[in-house]
Design a protein that fits this description.
Helix content is 83%, strand content 0%. By secondary structure, the chain is mainly α.
Length: 454
């Protein structure tokens, strides 16, 4: 194992997880802040129709995010396990293939997205008064997809080798740019919803510039070498197989949000869509720290499992699951107690607030389960066990939430949309628990058969 990553198998588990998770938590919060900051400024600078337009765009953009995570998660799992096995050459090969994949998929997604935008908006049952806002906002954000693919991929690689602070710094710089440009473009230049979109694209470009500097100045253990940019079948298959679970989870999340937007448009109004746009951004922001915790676990679990340190691997997983559950429980209490103040950060329109408060309370009844679900799925991703990782990642959205969103609204109207979310959370938590306990017993058995470092 190379010196720059040996600490993953040597330092005390609790402090190590905290040190690696904290930058991930901050970085993911910053990543989610793009949409939240845009929503906040759109709410005050454009109004409810602008909020509805950005809500319609959100599921489309989630599918793009899913594609970036597909390669990023798969490559980061392969990188950390290869480093744990003492094989830095394979780790650099995975990094090179990730960069090559990003350079191919970014432009391809841009071309495909622009060509299918109008049919997608029709499929989402976009109201005529909302259509211009949704189209303008989404079209501009598609221009930034090549930047998004490259930036997200390199950030995953940094975290995989334990450079969480560098990854966090890149996101902080980008968020600062977005926060400065949003009010400038909306309130000074008066570009409307297009200003919010352009601010996000420029901020994404800042991430790529920063990460290029990081890699070119040798501040990482791994290098991007020209010879590794050639796609290799063995590496690519493993990257795509392991990353498929996260890509599918986010893609299914985009499909789920799209179905919710469509149902709200059919059984509600543009005001209901606008309220859901706020709620979905808030929930995404509050979910991001859980992703950060999972990212902090990934290099520790992957490295120690690859090195045969099973006791450390099991301990890291259990600590992360406990921390994630505690966080999601605290957030759950806040969401139930104060939906009104949260919504008023984005809008003062009485109709939106009256509809949004009961919607938020009902939709978040199961949020206390989400932390355990997230760490459970991430455990199998880090271990390179693609099938259970894929199943658990898809359980909530594909197996449960999407069918509920199709079946319940025709009988219960808007309430059917709202109650689908906590029902899906409950049943997916039960499924995750069964797989998680089985894996912990497996690791304990390996630990007994081959004693490892405490």
């Amino acid at each position: 194992m190379i010196q720059d990553t040996a600490f993953l198998g040597q330092e005390r588990i609790g402090p190590l997880l905290f040190r690696l998770s904290l930058p991930g938590v901050v970085g993911m919060l910053v990543h989610a802040s793009y949409n939240v900051v845009d929503t906040l400024f759109i709410g005050w600078g454009v109004g409810a129709l602008g909020l509805a337009g950005s809500a319609v765009a959100f599921p489309i953009l989630m599918v793009v995010t899913a594609l970036t995570a597909w390669g990023g998660v798969g490559a980061s799992s392969l990188i950390s396990r290869s480093l744990g096995e003492g094989n830095p050459g394979r780790a650099e090969g995975a990094l090179g293939n990730l960069v090559a994949l990003s350079l191919l998929l970014g432009p391809a997604t841009l071309i495909l997205g622009l060509g299918t935008l109008d049919p997608l908006l029709r499929l989402l049952k976009t109201a005529p008064e909302v259509q211009p806002y949704a189209e303008e906002y989404t079209r501009i954000l598609f221009y930034g997809t090549p930047l998004l693919f490259t930036g997200v991929g390199l950030n995953y690689s940094l975290r995989a080798e334990g450079k969480a602070r560098l990854a966090m710094t890149s996101m902080l710089v980008s968020a600062a740019v977005n926060l400065i440009l949003d009010p400038l473009f909306l309130f000074v230049f008066r570009w409307g919803i297009a200003g919010a979109a352009w601010a996000t694209v420029i901020a994404q470009g800042t991430v790529v510039v920063w990460l290029g500097y990081v890699y070119l100045t040798g501040r990482t253990a791994l290098r991007i070498r020209p010879g590794h940019l050639r796609l290799r079948g063995d590496l690519l298959r493993e990257i795509l197989a392991v990353g498929l679970s996260e890509g599918a989870r986010l893609g299914a999340n985009g499909l789920m949000i799209g179905l919710a937007v469509r149902a709200l448009g059919v059984y509600g109004s543009s005001t209901a869509v606008a309220a859901y746009g706020i709620i979905s951004r808030v929930l995404t922001l509050l979910f991001m720290p859980l992703i950060g915790l999972a990212q902090g676990l990934q290099p520790v679990l992957g490295f120690n499992y690859g090195a045969g340190l099973y006791r450390r691997a099991r301990k890291a997983t259990l600590i992360s699951a406990q921390g994630a559950t505690l966080f999601s429980g605290l957030v759950w209490l806040i969401l139930l107690a104060a939906p009104g103040p949260i919504l008023r950060l984005f809008s003062s329109e009485p109709g939106l607030l009256a509809l949004g408060e009961p919607m938020m309370r009902t939709m978040t009844l199961g949020f206390f389960c989400v932390g355990f679900q997230t760490v459970g799925a991430a455990t199998f991703q880090a271990l390179g066990k693609a099938r259970p990782a894929l199943l658990l990642s898809l359980a909530r959205q594909v197996l449960l939430l999407i069918p509920l969103l199709v079946l319940l609204p025709p009988f219960f109207g808007l309430l059917g949309v709202w109650i689908s979310f906590p029902l899906a959370d409950l049943f997916s938590t039960l499924l995750t628990g069964a797989f998680f306990l089985s894996e912990m017993r497996f690791l304990k058995g390996r630990e007994t058969a081959l004693p490892s470092t405490p």
